[in-house]
Amino acid sequence: MGMLATLISGLASGETVAAMRRARTAAVAYALAALAAFCGLGFLVGAAYIWAASRFGSMAAALGFGIGFLLIAGLVLLVYRISAGTRARHRAQRRNADIKAIGIAAALAALPTLLKGKGGMGVVLGPAIALVAYAIYRENTKPAPDDPDAGTQ
């Protein structure tokens, strides 16, 4: 409810409209700067081609530039493919951390209700003891750092 009130007061005061105007102005400025940078790069490539063509001949310069750009494209794709596995691992770790945080928050939210119920402390202590025992088990069964199968858990 508090966020809705903030949004409504922001709309009423015109602050949201001003923020949208600033964001639109920044987007246009960055787009124009990017367009100018691409034009500059195009002219630099053209100048490099003219220099190479005058030095090595137009056919050799064209072949060299074509092969060079194909190599750059291949390197970009290779780096992307290599880093894709790392990104997937990071997403999985972040997802696991989020799931744990949601579970902890849900448990903390349910704790007062569980303590008031019929089972009282026993309802809470049983799973808590099981969780501590599992954590101790996991800590004591971690593979050695030099184990080649350490990353396959």
From TrEMBL:
Entry keyword annotation includes Transmembrane: yes
Annotated transmembrane regions: 28-52, 58-79, 99-115, 121-137
Protein name per its UniProtKB record: Phage holin family protein
Organism name: Mesorhizobium sanjuanii
Keyword entries, A-Z: Membrane, Transmembrane, Transmembrane helix
